[in-house]
Amino acid sequence: MLAMTALIAGCGKESGNTNVLSFRSGSLVNGGITLRNDEVTLHVQSTPDAVINAAGDLSIDQRSTAVNAAQRALLQDYYRNVVAVNEDGIVTGKAGAAIAGQAIKSVVKGIASGNTDSIDKDINAKSQKVTQEALKICQDLTNIKTTQDSLAVQLAAFKPYAGIIKADNLTDCTSGSKN
């Protein structure tokens, strides 16, 4: 559970702002990316929302935006990576919950046997799965940032949304998930 908490805190830190990483009905990175009803919505202050669907369609301020084949492929990639954050987050959460249950069992077993030295060793060994799952989320964020940067260069209408994920978000995520 400590690793899961660190992941959420690590992916959610940015100077001066509180970022949120929640799944299914929530948002990611300052509330800038929301996955809901099979659509990814991008929110940037003082800018109309942009919506991307699985087909790579882009609408800004509820108006369809023309894209070429290369741009559509990037938009589809962006969408897939946001979905991957969601899916990997669910797996990480489940792994964290399993570790919490196992931690309780290890504490009870260690106390009952008088071998309390084994508690940390047992829990730390099992927490590696949570760490590995958490790092997948960080990779998903890296993939989103890479696609975000490419879209900003190739699609002028996307430029206002190109700062949603910053390099600091990636650094904070990887350092937070390893703690």
Question: Can you give a write-up of this model?
Answer:
The chain has helices spanning 2-11, 69-113, 117-154, 167-178, and strands at residues 13-14, 17-18, 27-28, 33-36, 39-44, 47-53, 58-60, 63-65. It is an alpha+beta fold and 179 residues long. The strands form two sheets. The protein has a six-stranded antiparallel β-sheet, covered by helices on one side. The protein is elongated and about 70 Å long.
SSE layout:
Blueprint: H1 2-11, E1 13-14, E2 17-18, E3 27-28, E4 33-36, E5 39-44, E6 47-53, E7 58-60, E8 63-65, H2 69-113, H3 117-154, H4 167-178
Antiparallel strand pairs: 1-2, 3-4, 4-5, 5-6, 6-7, 7-8
Helix pairs in contact: 1-3, 1-4, 2-3, 3-4
How would you describe the shape?
elongated
Percent strand equals 15-25%
Low-confidence stretches: 1-27
What kind of oligomer do you see?
single chain
Helix fraction bin: 55-70%
Strand order of the largest sheet: 3-4-5-6-7-8
Rg from Cα: 19 Å
Estimated structural class: alpha+beta
Total strand count, please? 8
List keywords for this structure.
4 helices, 179 residues, six-stranded antiparallel beta sheet, 8 strands, disordered N terminus, two-stranded antiparallel ribbon, alpha+beta
Q: Summed up, what is this model?
A:
The protein has 179 residues and is α+β, with helices and mostly antiparallel strands. The chain is built from 4 helices and 8 strands, in the order H-E-E-E-E-E-E-E-E-H-H-H.
